[in-house]
Amino acid sequence: MRFLDADVASPRLGLALGPGVAELVASEPGLVDYVEIPFEQLRHAPHVGQVQQHLPVILHCASLSMAGFVSPTGATVDAVAAEARRTGTPWIGEHLAFVNADAIDEGQATPSALTYTVCPQLSEETIVQVVRNVASLRDRLPVPLILENSPQYMAVPGSTMGMVDFIGEVARQAGLGLLLDLTHHTITCQNTGVDAISELDRLPLERVVEVHLSGLSVQSGIAWDDHASPAPPLVFELFARLLRRVRPRAVTIEYNWAPNFPQSVLRAHIGRVRAMLEAV
Amino acid sequence: MAAGLKDPALLARWREDPEALARLGVDPAELDLDALTRFAGLTVKVRHNPARDSLSATFRMLQVTGLEVEFFAAYAMDRARSGVPFASSTEDRTRELVAFLEAWVDPARPEQAMLGELARHERTLAELAALSPPEEPAARAILRARAVPRRRGQQRLRTVGWDPRAIVAALQTANPDLGALVRGERHLCYWRLGPALRLVELDIAGFRALELVDGRRTAGAVARALTGGTSARAGLALLGQLGEAGLIASS
Protein backbone atom coordinates (compact mmCIF):
# COMPACT_ATOMS: atom_id res chain seq x y z
CA MET A 1 0.00 0.00 0.00
CA ARG A 2 1.16 3.49 -0.77
CA PHE A 3 0.69 6.43 1.60
CA LEU A 4 0.79 10.14 0.96
CA ASP A 5 3.71 12.00 2.51
CA ALA A 6 2.47 13.63 5.68
CA ASP A 7 4.92 16.45 5.36
CA VAL A 8 5.34 17.60 1.83
CA ALA A 9 7.10 20.65 0.55
CA SER A 10 5.27 20.78 -2.73
CA PRO A 11 1.58 20.34 -3.48
CA ARG A 12 0.40 16.96 -4.67
CA LEU A 13 -1.82 16.37 -7.70
CA GLY A 14 -4.45 13.65 -7.78
CA LEU A 15 -7.52 12.31 -9.53
CA ALA A 16 -10.93 11.55 -8.10
CA LEU A 17 -11.73 7.88 -8.54
CA GLY A 18 -13.93 7.18 -11.53
CA PRO A 19 -14.22 4.94 -14.59
CA GLY A 20 -10.81 4.14 -15.95
CA VAL A 21 -8.80 5.90 -13.23
CA ALA A 22 -7.56 2.72 -11.56
CA GLU A 23 -6.33 1.38 -14.90
CA LEU A 24 -4.74 4.71 -15.80
CA VAL A 25 -2.75 5.10 -12.60
CA ALA A 26 -1.71 1.45 -12.70
CA SER A 27 -0.31 1.89 -16.19
CA GLU A 28 1.22 5.30 -15.52
CA PRO A 29 1.98 5.58 -11.81
CA GLY A 30 3.93 8.80 -12.21
CA LEU A 31 1.12 10.67 -13.91
CA VAL A 32 -0.49 11.80 -10.64
CA ASP A 33 0.44 11.55 -6.97
CA TYR A 34 -2.72 10.11 -5.41
CA VAL A 35 -6.29 8.99 -5.98
CA GLU A 36 -9.15 10.44 -3.98
CA ILE A 37 -11.75 7.84 -3.08
CA PRO A 38 -15.14 8.41 -1.46
CA PHE A 39 -15.69 6.55 1.78
CA GLU A 40 -19.08 5.43 0.44
CA GLN A 41 -17.45 3.56 -2.45
CA LEU A 42 -14.94 1.88 -0.16
CA ARG A 43 -17.76 0.85 2.15
CA HIS A 44 -19.95 -0.69 -0.50
CA ALA A 45 -17.32 -1.81 -3.02
CA PRO A 46 -14.10 -2.39 -1.06
CA HIS A 47 -12.26 -3.66 -4.14
CA VAL A 48 -11.90 -0.06 -5.38
CA GLY A 49 -9.32 0.36 -2.62
CA GLN A 50 -6.94 -1.88 -4.56
CA VAL A 51 -5.78 1.22 -6.40
CA GLN A 52 -3.71 1.92 -3.28
CA GLN A 53 -1.30 -0.75 -4.42
CA HIS A 54 -0.17 1.80 -6.99
CA LEU A 55 -0.80 5.19 -5.42
CA PRO A 56 -1.65 6.77 -2.07
CA VAL A 57 -5.27 7.47 -1.28
CA ILE A 58 -6.98 10.54 0.13
CA LEU A 59 -10.32 9.78 1.72
CA HIS A 60 -13.34 11.81 0.69
CA CYS A 61 -16.65 11.52 2.49
CA ALA A 62 -20.33 12.40 2.12
CA SER A 63 -21.83 10.61 5.11
CA LEU A 64 -21.13 12.72 8.21
CA SER A 65 -23.76 15.40 7.49
CA MET A 66 -21.53 18.09 8.95
CA ALA A 67 -24.07 20.88 8.45
CA GLY A 68 -27.04 18.76 9.42
CA PHE A 69 -29.10 18.48 12.57
CA VAL A 70 -29.40 14.69 12.44
CA SER A 71 -26.18 12.97 13.33
CA PRO A 72 -24.75 10.06 11.40
CA THR A 73 -25.02 6.70 13.13
CA GLY A 74 -22.21 5.52 15.37
CA ALA A 75 -21.59 2.67 12.94
CA THR A 76 -21.07 5.15 10.11
CA VAL A 77 -18.62 7.24 12.11
CA ASP A 78 -16.72 4.12 13.16
CA ALA A 79 -16.59 2.93 9.56
CA VAL A 80 -15.24 6.30 8.37
CA ALA A 81 -12.60 6.20 11.09
CA ALA A 82 -11.66 2.65 10.14
CA GLU A 83 -11.20 3.58 6.49
CA ALA A 84 -9.17 6.62 7.47
CA ARG A 85 -6.81 4.41 9.46
CA ARG A 86 -6.66 1.73 6.80
CA THR A 87 -5.91 4.12 3.94
CA GLY A 88 -3.52 6.26 5.95
CA THR A 89 -5.22 9.34 4.53
CA PRO A 90 -3.69 12.58 5.84
CA TRP A 91 -7.15 14.13 6.27
CA ILE A 92 -10.81 13.42 5.54
CA GLY A 93 -12.47 15.78 3.08
CA GLU A 94 -16.12 16.03 4.05
CA HIS A 95 -18.84 18.25 2.66
CA LEU A 96 -20.07 21.33 4.49
CA ALA A 97 -23.57 20.08 3.78
CA PHE A 98 -26.20 17.72 5.08
CA VAL A 99 -27.29 14.27 3.99
CA ASN A 100 -29.59 13.51 6.91
CA ALA A 101 -32.59 15.53 8.02
CA ASP A 102 -35.47 15.26 10.46
CA ALA A 103 -38.73 13.70 9.34
CA ILE A 104 -41.49 16.09 8.34
CA ASP A 105 -45.19 15.75 8.97
CA GLU A 106 -46.10 14.77 5.42
CA GLY A 107 -46.61 11.14 6.31
CA GLN A 108 -42.88 10.68 6.68
CA ALA A 109 -42.08 8.36 9.54
CA THR A 110 -38.31 8.36 9.48
CA PRO A 111 -35.70 11.01 8.89
CA SER A 112 -34.57 11.58 5.34
CA ALA A 113 -31.27 10.01 4.48
CA LEU A 114 -30.04 11.19 1.12
CA THR A 115 -27.40 9.86 -1.22
CA TYR A 116 -26.40 13.36 -2.26
CA THR A 117 -25.14 16.25 -0.18
CA VAL A 118 -27.29 19.37 0.07
CA CYS A 119 -26.26 22.95 0.63
CA PRO A 120 -27.38 23.90 4.14
CA GLN A 121 -29.17 26.96 5.40
CA LEU A 122 -26.48 29.61 5.62
CA SER A 123 -27.14 30.97 9.09
CA GLU A 124 -25.77 31.40 12.60
CA GLU A 125 -27.86 28.43 13.70
CA THR A 126 -26.17 26.19 11.16
CA ILE A 127 -22.73 27.48 12.07
CA VAL A 128 -23.34 26.60 15.72
CA GLN A 129 -24.49 23.14 14.67
CA VAL A 130 -21.45 22.57 12.47
CA VAL A 131 -19.16 23.53 15.34
CA ARG A 132 -21.09 21.13 17.58
CA ASN A 133 -20.83 18.34 15.00
CA VAL A 134 -17.10 18.91 14.56
CA ALA A 135 -16.53 18.78 18.30
CA SER A 136 -18.44 15.51 18.59
CA LEU A 137 -16.35 13.91 15.86
CA ARG A 138 -12.93 15.27 16.63
CA ASP A 139 -11.94 12.53 19.05
CA ARG A 140 -13.51 9.76 17.03
CA LEU A 141 -11.58 10.35 13.81
CA PRO A 142 -7.85 9.59 13.57
CA VAL A 143 -7.05 12.46 11.19
CA PRO A 144 -8.28 16.03 10.77
CA LEU A 145 -11.47 16.87 8.93
CA ILE A 146 -11.40 19.49 6.22
CA LEU A 147 -14.67 20.91 4.93
CA GLU A 148 -15.69 21.30 1.31
CA ASN A 149 -17.87 24.20 0.18
CA SER A 150 -21.23 23.14 -1.29
CA PRO A 151 -22.50 24.25 -4.67
CA GLN A 152 -25.55 26.43 -4.08
CA TYR A 153 -28.28 25.82 -6.65
CA MET A 154 -31.03 27.90 -5.07
CA ALA A 155 -31.69 30.17 -2.13
CA VAL A 156 -32.07 28.11 1.02
CA PRO A 157 -34.97 29.41 3.15
CA GLY A 158 -33.88 30.98 6.39
CA SER A 159 -30.40 31.85 5.15
CA THR A 160 -29.04 35.08 6.57
CA MET A 161 -25.66 35.28 4.88
CA GLY A 162 -23.81 34.40 1.72
CA MET A 163 -21.67 31.32 1.21
CA VAL A 164 -18.31 33.03 1.65
CA ASP A 165 -19.25 34.57 4.97
CA PHE A 166 -20.72 31.25 6.08
CA ILE A 167 -17.58 29.32 5.19
CA GLY A 168 -15.38 31.91 6.85
CA GLU A 169 -17.27 31.75 10.11
CA VAL A 170 -17.46 27.96 10.13
CA ALA A 171 -13.73 27.67 9.53
CA ARG A 172 -12.93 30.24 12.18
CA GLN A 173 -15.23 28.91 14.88
CA ALA A 174 -14.55 25.22 14.21
CA GLY A 175 -10.85 25.72 13.61
CA LEU A 176 -10.84 23.60 10.52
CA GLY A 177 -9.05 23.54 7.21
CA LEU A 178 -10.88 23.86 3.94
CA LEU A 179 -11.30 21.76 0.87
CA LEU A 180 -11.95 24.52 -1.61
CA ASP A 181 -13.91 23.27 -4.57
CA LEU A 182 -13.35 26.05 -7.07
CA THR A 183 -16.10 24.76 -9.33
CA HIS A 184 -18.61 24.73 -6.49
CA HIS A 185 -17.46 28.26 -5.70
CA THR A 186 -18.03 29.31 -9.31
CA ILE A 187 -21.45 27.64 -9.36
CA THR A 188 -22.52 29.31 -6.13
CA CYS A 189 -21.37 32.73 -7.31
CA GLN A 190 -23.07 32.36 -10.67
CA ASN A 191 -26.33 31.16 -9.14
CA THR A 192 -26.38 33.86 -6.46
CA GLY A 193 -25.30 36.71 -8.69
CA VAL A 194 -21.95 37.58 -7.10
CA ASP A 195 -18.51 37.92 -8.61
CA ALA A 196 -16.48 34.74 -8.25
CA ILE A 197 -13.10 36.48 -8.19
CA SER A 198 -13.87 39.09 -5.55
CA GLU A 199 -15.65 36.45 -3.47
CA LEU A 200 -12.61 34.20 -3.69
CA ASP A 201 -10.49 36.99 -2.23
CA ARG A 202 -12.82 37.16 0.80
CA LEU A 203 -12.36 33.49 1.68
CA PRO A 204 -9.89 32.49 4.40
CA LEU A 205 -7.56 31.07 1.77
CA GLU A 206 -4.82 30.45 4.33
CA ARG A 207 -7.01 27.58 5.56
CA VAL A 208 -7.17 25.84 2.18
CA VAL A 209 -5.63 22.37 2.44
CA GLU A 210 -7.00 20.80 -0.72
CA VAL A 211 -8.53 22.10 -3.94
CA HIS A 212 -11.06 20.43 -6.24
CA LEU A 213 -11.40 21.18 -9.94
CA SER A 214 -14.22 19.92 -12.12
CA GLY A 215 -16.64 20.99 -14.81
CA LEU A 216 -19.99 22.66 -14.66
CA SER A 217 -23.01 22.82 -16.93
CA VAL A 218 -25.53 25.62 -17.24
CA GLN A 219 -28.99 24.24 -17.88
CA SER A 220 -32.44 25.65 -17.30
CA GLY A 221 -30.81 28.86 -16.15
CA ILE A 222 -28.83 27.29 -13.30
CA ALA A 223 -25.18 26.29 -13.13
CA TRP A 224 -24.81 22.64 -12.06
CA ASP A 225 -21.89 20.52 -10.96
CA ASP A 226 -20.73 18.35 -13.84
CA HIS A 227 -17.79 15.96 -13.43
CA ALA A 228 -18.33 14.76 -16.99
CA SER A 229 -17.06 18.10 -18.29
CA PRO A 230 -13.66 19.77 -17.97
CA ALA A 231 -13.08 22.74 -15.71
CA PRO A 232 -13.94 25.96 -17.55
CA PRO A 233 -11.48 28.86 -17.97
CA LEU A 234 -12.87 30.78 -14.98
CA VAL A 235 -12.08 27.88 -12.65
CA PHE A 236 -8.49 27.87 -13.87
CA GLU A 237 -8.34 31.65 -13.45
CA LEU A 238 -9.53 31.26 -9.86
CA PHE A 239 -6.98 28.52 -9.31
CA ALA A 240 -4.16 30.72 -10.55
CA ARG A 241 -5.37 33.51 -8.31
CA LEU A 242 -5.50 31.15 -5.34
CA LEU A 243 -1.95 29.97 -5.98
CA ARG A 244 -0.70 33.55 -5.81
CA ARG A 245 -1.93 33.65 -2.22
CA VAL A 246 -1.52 30.13 -0.86
CA ARG A 247 0.05 26.78 -1.54
CA PRO A 248 -2.50 23.96 -0.99
CA ARG A 249 -1.24 20.55 -0.01
CA ALA A 250 -3.25 18.75 -2.64
CA VAL A 251 -5.22 19.44 -5.82
CA THR A 252 -7.76 16.89 -7.08
CA ILE A 253 -9.09 16.83 -10.61
CA GLU A 254 -12.65 15.48 -10.54
CA TYR A 255 -13.39 14.29 -14.06
CA ASN A 256 -14.92 11.09 -12.81
CA TRP A 257 -18.49 10.73 -14.06
CA ALA A 258 -18.06 9.74 -17.70
CA PRO A 259 -16.26 6.56 -18.85
CA ASN A 260 -15.42 8.23 -22.15
CA PHE A 261 -14.01 11.48 -20.77
CA PRO A 262 -11.51 12.54 -23.46
CA GLN A 263 -8.10 11.28 -22.40
CA SER A 264 -6.41 14.09 -24.31
CA VAL A 265 -8.28 16.68 -22.26
CA LEU A 266 -7.59 14.85 -18.99
CA ARG A 267 -3.88 14.65 -19.73
CA ALA A 268 -3.73 18.25 -20.87
CA HIS A 269 -5.34 19.43 -17.66
CA ILE A 270 -3.12 17.20 -15.53
CA GLY A 271 -0.14 18.76 -17.26
CA ARG A 272 -1.50 22.25 -16.87
CA VAL A 273 -2.23 21.88 -13.16
CA ARG A 274 1.13 20.22 -12.57
CA ALA A 275 2.89 23.13 -14.26
CA MET A 276 0.90 25.66 -12.23
CA LEU A 277 1.80 23.88 -9.00
CA GLU A 278 5.47 23.64 -9.87
CA ALA A 279 5.56 27.35 -10.56
CA VAL A 280 4.35 28.14 -7.05
CA MET B 1 -35.59 20.18 1.22
CA ALA B 2 -34.33 16.73 2.12
CA ALA B 3 -37.82 15.24 2.13
CA GLY B 4 -38.53 16.77 -1.27
CA LEU B 5 -35.28 15.51 -2.73
CA LYS B 6 -35.87 12.03 -1.39
CA ASP B 7 -39.48 11.97 -2.58
CA PRO B 8 -39.99 14.41 -5.46
CA ALA B 9 -43.72 13.64 -5.39
CA LEU B 10 -43.80 15.95 -2.37
CA LEU B 11 -42.52 18.75 -4.57
CA ALA B 12 -45.44 18.27 -6.92
CA ARG B 13 -47.82 18.20 -3.98
CA TRP B 14 -46.42 21.44 -2.55
CA ARG B 15 -46.62 23.06 -5.96
CA GLU B 16 -50.31 22.22 -6.12
CA ASP B 17 -50.95 23.10 -2.48
CA PRO B 18 -48.52 25.78 -1.22
CA GLU B 19 -50.40 25.82 2.08
CA ALA B 20 -49.04 22.35 2.78
CA LEU B 21 -45.55 23.83 2.64
CA ALA B 22 -46.59 26.73 4.84
CA ARG B 23 -47.91 24.28 7.44
CA LEU B 24 -44.38 22.87 7.64
CA GLY B 25 -43.12 26.32 8.56
CA VAL B 26 -41.68 27.17 5.16
CA ASP B 27 -42.76 30.29 3.31
CA PRO B 28 -43.71 28.98 -0.16
CA ALA B 29 -42.33 32.15 -1.69
CA GLU B 30 -38.90 31.37 -0.24
CA LEU B 31 -38.49 27.86 -1.61
CA ASP B 32 -37.82 27.55 -5.32
CA LEU B 33 -39.62 24.30 -6.07
CA ASP B 34 -38.57 24.39 -9.72
CA ALA B 35 -34.91 24.56 -8.78
CA LEU B 36 -35.38 21.87 -6.14
CA THR B 37 -37.08 19.64 -8.68
CA ARG B 38 -34.16 20.13 -11.03
CA PHE B 39 -31.76 19.35 -8.20
CA ALA B 40 -33.67 16.13 -7.67
CA GLY B 41 -33.06 15.49 -11.36
CA LEU B 42 -29.34 16.11 -10.91
CA THR B 43 -29.18 13.52 -8.12
CA VAL B 44 -30.99 10.99 -10.32
CA LYS B 45 -28.60 11.78 -13.15
CA VAL B 46 -25.60 11.06 -10.95
CA ARG B 47 -27.21 7.80 -9.82
CA HIS B 48 -27.37 6.81 -13.47
CA ASN B 49 -23.71 7.53 -14.18
CA PRO B 50 -23.03 3.80 -14.72
CA ALA B 51 -25.48 3.95 -17.64
CA ARG B 52 -23.00 6.23 -19.42
CA ASP B 53 -21.04 3.10 -20.33
CA SER B 54 -23.63 2.09 -22.91
CA LEU B 55 -25.32 5.46 -23.43
CA SER B 56 -22.32 7.77 -23.76
CA ALA B 57 -23.60 9.55 -26.86
CA THR B 58 -27.08 9.87 -25.38
CA PHE B 59 -25.71 11.55 -22.27
CA ARG B 60 -23.57 13.81 -24.43
CA MET B 61 -26.63 14.72 -26.49
CA LEU B 62 -28.61 15.52 -23.34
CA GLN B 63 -25.84 17.81 -22.21
CA VAL B 64 -25.28 19.49 -25.57
CA THR B 65 -28.99 20.20 -26.04
CA GLY B 66 -29.37 21.51 -22.49
CA LEU B 67 -32.03 18.88 -21.81
CA GLU B 68 -30.08 16.91 -19.24
CA VAL B 69 -31.41 18.37 -16.02
CA GLU B 70 -34.93 18.86 -17.37
CA PHE B 71 -35.05 15.24 -18.52
CA PHE B 72 -33.75 13.75 -15.31
CA ALA B 73 -36.04 15.98 -13.29
CA ALA B 74 -38.97 14.60 -15.27
CA TYR B 75 -37.69 11.08 -14.68
CA ALA B 76 -37.31 11.70 -10.97
CA MET B 77 -40.87 13.01 -10.76
CA ASP B 78 -42.24 10.14 -12.81
CA ARG B 79 -40.61 7.56 -10.57
CA ALA B 80 -41.70 9.35 -7.44
CA ARG B 81 -45.31 9.44 -8.59
CA SER B 82 -45.27 5.77 -9.58
CA GLY B 83 -43.68 4.69 -6.30
CA VAL B 84 -41.48 2.26 -8.21
CA PRO B 85 -37.88 2.40 -6.99
CA PHE B 86 -35.02 2.56 -9.45
CA ALA B 87 -33.74 -0.86 -10.52
CA SER B 88 -30.72 -2.16 -8.69
CA SER B 89 -28.69 -3.44 -11.66
CA THR B 90 -27.08 -1.10 -14.16
CA GLU B 91 -28.54 -3.17 -17.00
CA ASP B 92 -32.11 -2.81 -15.76
CA ARG B 93 -31.63 0.80 -14.75
CA THR B 94 -30.35 1.62 -18.22
CA ARG B 95 -33.18 -0.20 -19.91
CA GLU B 96 -35.77 1.67 -17.83
CA LEU B 97 -34.05 4.98 -18.47
CA VAL B 98 -34.20 4.46 -22.23
CA ALA B 99 -37.83 3.39 -22.02
CA PHE B 100 -38.70 6.60 -20.19
CA LEU B 101 -36.67 8.73 -22.56
CA GLU B 102 -38.39 7.21 -25.60
CA ALA B 103 -41.76 8.12 -24.13
CA TRP B 104 -40.59 11.55 -22.95
CA VAL B 105 -39.15 12.98 -26.15
CA ASP B 106 -41.35 15.10 -28.37
CA PRO B 107 -40.88 13.66 -31.88
CA ALA B 108 -41.99 16.96 -33.38
CA ARG B 109 -38.89 18.66 -31.99
CA PRO B 110 -35.89 17.63 -34.09
CA GLU B 111 -33.32 17.56 -31.29
CA GLN B 112 -35.58 15.48 -29.11
CA ALA B 113 -36.39 13.14 -31.99
CA MET B 114 -32.64 12.71 -32.54
CA LEU B 115 -32.21 12.05 -28.84
CA GLY B 116 -34.77 9.26 -28.92
CA GLU B 117 -33.16 7.78 -32.00
CA LEU B 118 -29.76 7.89 -30.38
CA ALA B 119 -30.91 6.20 -27.19
CA ARG B 120 -32.51 3.36 -29.15
CA HIS B 121 -29.37 3.07 -31.24
CA GLU B 122 -27.05 2.78 -28.27
CA ARG B 123 -29.42 0.48 -26.42
CA THR B 124 -29.58 -1.86 -29.43
CA LEU B 125 -25.80 -1.92 -29.74
CA ALA B 126 -25.45 -2.65 -26.03
CA GLU B 127 -28.01 -5.47 -26.14
CA LEU B 128 -26.25 -7.14 -29.06
CA ALA B 129 -22.81 -6.63 -27.55
CA ALA B 130 -23.99 -8.38 -24.38
CA LEU B 131 -25.03 -11.52 -26.23
CA SER B 132 -22.95 -14.65 -26.44
CA PRO B 133 -24.11 -15.93 -29.79
CA PRO B 134 -23.16 -19.43 -30.87
CA GLU B 135 -20.68 -20.00 -33.63
CA GLU B 136 -22.20 -19.61 -37.06
CA PRO B 137 -21.48 -22.14 -39.76
CA ALA B 138 -20.27 -20.78 -43.05
CA ALA B 139 -23.06 -19.34 -45.13
CA ARG B 140 -24.66 -21.50 -47.78
CA ALA B 141 -25.92 -19.62 -50.77
CA ILE B 142 -29.64 -19.32 -51.40
CA LEU B 143 -30.05 -21.00 -54.73
CA ARG B 144 -33.51 -22.43 -54.90
CA ALA B 145 -36.99 -21.23 -54.26
CA ARG B 146 -37.58 -24.17 -51.97
CA ALA B 147 -34.65 -23.35 -49.73
CA VAL B 148 -35.59 -21.94 -46.34
CA PRO B 149 -33.44 -18.92 -45.58
CA ARG B 150 -32.62 -17.82 -42.07
CA ARG B 151 -30.91 -14.77 -40.69
CA ARG B 152 -27.33 -15.28 -39.60
CA GLY B 153 -26.17 -14.21 -36.16
CA GLN B 154 -28.34 -11.86 -34.15
CA GLN B 155 -30.05 -9.04 -36.00
CA ARG B 156 -32.19 -6.08 -35.04
CA LEU B 157 -33.95 -4.24 -37.81
CA ARG B 158 -34.83 -0.59 -37.40
CA THR B 159 -36.17 2.12 -39.61
CA VAL B 160 -34.87 5.46 -38.37
CA GLY B 161 -35.83 9.01 -39.14
CA TRP B 162 -32.44 10.43 -38.16
CA ASP B 163 -29.22 8.59 -38.91
CA PRO B 164 -27.74 7.74 -35.49
CA ARG B 165 -24.28 7.39 -37.02
CA ALA B 166 -24.40 11.00 -38.18
CA ILE B 167 -25.63 12.14 -34.78
CA VAL B 168 -22.80 10.31 -33.02
CA ALA B 169 -20.25 11.79 -35.42
CA ALA B 170 -21.59 15.29 -34.81
CA LEU B 171 -21.48 14.81 -31.04
CA GLN B 172 -17.82 13.83 -31.20
CA THR B 173 -16.89 17.34 -32.28
CA ALA B 174 -16.14 20.07 -29.77
CA ASN B 175 -19.13 22.16 -30.89
CA PRO B 176 -21.72 19.82 -32.38
CA ASP B 177 -23.79 21.34 -35.19
CA LEU B 178 -26.96 19.31 -34.85
CA GLY B 179 -28.79 21.79 -37.06
CA ALA B 180 -26.72 20.62 -40.00
CA LEU B 181 -28.10 17.09 -39.75
CA VAL B 182 -30.76 16.17 -42.27
CA ARG B 183 -33.82 14.13 -41.48
CA GLY B 184 -34.38 11.18 -43.75
CA GLU B 185 -35.63 7.64 -43.43
CA ARG B 186 -32.97 4.95 -43.33
CA HIS B 187 -33.21 1.21 -42.88
CA LEU B 188 -30.63 -0.31 -40.63
CA CYS B 189 -29.68 -3.81 -39.64
CA TYR B 190 -27.78 -4.08 -36.37
CA TRP B 191 -25.91 -7.32 -36.83
CA ARG B 192 -23.92 -9.41 -34.38
CA LEU B 193 -22.07 -12.29 -36.01
CA GLY B 194 -19.63 -14.01 -33.72
CA PRO B 195 -17.55 -11.30 -32.05
CA ALA B 196 -18.26 -8.74 -34.76
CA LEU B 197 -20.97 -6.13 -34.35
CA ARG B 198 -21.89 -4.26 -37.48
CA LEU B 199 -24.40 -1.72 -38.65
CA VAL B 200 -25.56 -2.39 -42.20
CA GLU B 201 -27.68 0.07 -44.13
CA LEU B 202 -30.16 -1.48 -46.55
CA ASP B 203 -32.47 -0.14 -49.18
CA ILE B 204 -36.17 -0.59 -48.55
CA ALA B 205 -36.34 -3.76 -50.62
CA GLY B 206 -33.45 -5.42 -48.82
CA PHE B 207 -34.86 -4.35 -45.47
CA ARG B 208 -38.27 -5.72 -46.30
CA ALA B 209 -36.72 -8.97 -47.50
CA LEU B 210 -34.79 -9.36 -44.30
CA GLU B 211 -37.93 -8.71 -42.30
CA LEU B 212 -39.68 -11.54 -44.14
CA VAL B 213 -36.90 -14.07 -43.57
CA ASP B 214 -38.01 -15.97 -40.48
CA GLY B 215 -36.48 -19.41 -40.83
CA ARG B 216 -39.86 -20.88 -41.84
CA ARG B 217 -40.84 -19.25 -45.12
CA THR B 218 -39.19 -20.60 -48.23
CA ALA B 219 -37.13 -18.34 -50.41
CA GLY B 220 -39.87 -18.55 -53.00
CA ALA B 221 -42.52 -17.45 -50.51
CA VAL B 222 -40.37 -14.52 -49.43
CA ALA B 223 -39.72 -13.56 -53.03
CA ARG B 224 -43.41 -13.64 -53.90
CA ALA B 225 -44.29 -11.61 -50.80
CA LEU B 226 -41.68 -9.03 -51.78
CA THR B 227 -42.92 -8.62 -55.31
CA GLY B 228 -46.60 -9.22 -54.81
CA GLY B 229 -46.29 -12.42 -56.75
CA THR B 230 -45.28 -10.56 -59.90
CA SER B 231 -41.63 -11.58 -60.16
CA ALA B 232 -40.27 -14.22 -57.88
CA ARG B 233 -37.03 -14.10 -59.86
CA ALA B 234 -36.36 -10.54 -58.79
CA GLY B 235 -37.14 -11.48 -55.21
CA LEU B 236 -34.81 -14.46 -55.34
CA ALA B 237 -32.08 -12.29 -56.81
CA LEU B 238 -32.49 -9.93 -53.88
CA LEU B 239 -32.26 -12.82 -51.44
CA GLY B 240 -29.15 -13.90 -53.28
CA GLN B 241 -27.59 -10.50 -52.65
CA LEU B 242 -28.43 -10.74 -48.96
CA GLY B 243 -26.85 -14.17 -48.95
CA GLU B 244 -23.69 -12.88 -50.60
CA ALA B 245 -23.50 -10.23 -47.91
CA GLY B 246 -23.66 -13.00 -45.32
CA LEU B 247 -26.85 -11.68 -43.76
CA ILE B 248 -28.86 -14.78 -44.56
CA ALA B 249 -28.13 -18.38 -45.42
CA SER B 250 -30.01 -21.53 -46.26
CA SER B 251 -31.01 -23.61 -43.28
Question: What's the layout of helices and strands?
Answer:
The complex is a heterodimer of chains A (280) and B (251).
Chain A: E1 12-16, H1 21-27, E2 34-38, H2 39-44, E3 57-61, H3 74-87, E4 92-95, E5 98-101, E6 112-118, H4 124-138, E7 145-148, H5 163-174, E8 177-181, H6 182-192, H7 196-202, E9 208-213, E10 215-219, E11 222-226, H8 233-243, E12 250-253, H9 263-278
Parallel strand pairs in A: 1-2, 1-12, 2-3, 3-4, 4-7, 7-8, 8-9, 9-12
Antiparallel strand pairs in A: 5-6, 10-11
Chain B: H1 2-6, H2 9-16, H3 18-23, H4 33-47, H5 56-64, H6 68-82, H7 90-104, H8 110-129, E1 149-151, E2 154-160, H9 164-171, E3 186-193, E4 196-202, H10 204-212, H11 219-227, H12 232-244, E5 248-250
Antiparallel strand pairs in B: 1-5, 2-3, 3-4
Could you characterize the architecture of this molecule?
The complex is a heterodimer of chains A (280) and B (251). With 280 residues, chain A is of the alpha/beta class. Helices cover 35% and strands 21% of the residues of chain A. Chain A has helices spanning 21-27, 39-44, 74-87, 124-138, 163-174, 182-192, 196-202, 233-243, 263-278; strands at residues 12-16, 34-38, 57-61, 92-95, 98-101, 112-118, 145-148, 177-181, 208-213, 215-219, 222-226, 250-253. Chain A has an eight-stranded parallel β-barrel with strand order 1-2-3-4-7-8-9-12, surrounded by four helices. A two-stranded antiparallel ribbon of chain A has the order 5-6. In chain A, β1 (12-16), α1 and β2 (34-38) form a beta-alpha-beta unit. The longest helix of chain A has 16 residues, at 263-278. In chain B, α4 (33-47) packs across α6. Chain B has helices at residues 2-6, 9-16, 18-23, 33-47, 56-64, 68-82, 90-104, 110-129, 164-171, 204-212, 219-227, 232-244, and strands at residues 149-151, 154-160, 186-193, 196-202, 248-250. In chain B, the strands form two sheets. Chain B has a three-stranded antiparallel β-sheet with strand order 2-3-4. A two-stranded antiparallel ribbon of chain B has the order 1-5. With 251 residues, chain B is mostly helical. Chain B is elongated, with a radius of gyration of 24 Å. Chain B has twelve helices and five strands.
